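ok so i was messing around last nite and threw this chain in just to see what happens. nothing serious, just curious
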Amino acid sequence: MLAQSLQREVCGIDVNRTELVQAARVFGHELRLSFVAADIQTLALPRDVFDVILLPACVQYFADPAALIVRLLAQLREDGELHILDSPLYATPQRCQESAARSLRYFTELGVPQLAAHYHQHTYATFDRFAVQWLFDPRRWSARVRKTLRLPQPHFPWLRLRKRDNVRAIGS
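result:
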């Protein structure tokens, strides 16, 4: 949809081949769309090339999201943006531990407790070293009111990091 609506080249990268096969089946007819089965943390990517990088519903699968962000910001053009959305963040380390315990119970009930080691909980503080625009923040008063009133809204934060605002973070 991005490739078509924005008239841009779009490349989807994922380690999960099943997801890529499904994406190719659904969107494979798009000429400006390509898929790569690879680990974004180790894939050789050109620097200063991408206009936008999206991380939808996946930050929780990375043990060190700050290192990932630094790496991806370096791949962006000077005015490029990194968007992180649909990933849970927690207010405190204690909330992270509670979520980790729930995840372990969940995966144990499924019979695959080892999968819990691949699911990481992160706090909002993880992003303190970066200049972040919170396009949606469930901690905001307005979001809490909307939730109380059961009005539609995202469940998880939406972060936008601009390369030009994070040059020092990339260099450190």
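not much to say yet. The longest strand covers residues 76-85.
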